[in-house]
Amino acid sequence: EIVLTQSPGTLSLSPGERATLSCRASQSVSSNYLAWYHQKPGQAPRLLIYAASSRATGIPDRFSGSGSGTDFTLTISRLEPEDFAVYYCQQYGSSLWTFGQGTKVEIK
Amino acid sequence: QVQLVESGGGVVQPGRSLRLSCAASGFTFSSYSMHWVRQAPGKGLEWVAVITYDGSNRDYADSVKGRFTISRDNSKNTLYLQMNSLSAEDTAVYYCAKEEFACFASWGQGTLVTVSS
């Protein structure tokens, strides 16, 4: 089973700043099968990025994904108030889906 | 638009069973693999189970294998999760999700399952 480790655990930033979130896999992940979500309190997660770098429908272009192999990154170019949330990466491989433990992006 | 509505959650005693349902609308349900994903209180996301578009293949997380069964009724546009031998570790919000590109493109609002005596 591939384990995803996200860092940092918490990111304290101000609106307008750039956020860089990391997701590291214990084994190589196909770029086609790496996704990012965010989740606000009391809500279901929402898909942001799929296939490592493709934005999901309706996701603004301040969100971008990159990476390959075992190292992937989600970047939010300029944080908006609604972007403060918990972010999860997720991978698929060998009929198993796994999530990282999450990164909380909080207002500084 | 895609709508997924879970139901069937509640409080159940350890060792008992519960069946969750997920009513789908706004897309061709019979064309998509569907999943259950859960989230324990204050914790992260855990994938639980998947069923292919026609019900021919199913896979489960090790934590639920042998106890949970995922199924679907394409004539009713409904996904199910039969949960047996429940324990406190199964306490969570259970989400159904529509798969696209090997990820969870759409989610329901979730239903809370609490296992407690």
What this model shows, in words?
The complex is a heterodimer of chains A (108) and B (117). Chain A has no helices and ten strands. Chain A is an all-beta fold and 108 residues long. In chain A, strands 2, 4, 5, 6, 8, 9 and 10 form a seven-stranded mixed sheet that branches. A three-stranded antiparallel sheet of chain A has the order 1-3-7, with no helix packed on it. Chain A starts with a strand and ends with a strand. Chain B contains no helices and eleven strands. In chain B, strand 4 (34-39) and strand 5 form a beta hairpin. The model of chain B has no long low-confidence stretch (mean pLDDT 97). The A-B interface holds A 32-33, 35, 37, 39, 44-47, 50-51, 54, 56, 88, 90, 92, 95-102 and B 35, 44-47, 50, 59, 61, 95, 100-110.
Key attributes of the depicted protein:
heterodimer, A: 108 residues, mainly beta, 7-stranded mixed β-sheet, 3-stranded antiparallel β-sheet, 10 strands, globular, B: 117 residues, 4-stranded antiparallel β-sheet, 11 strands
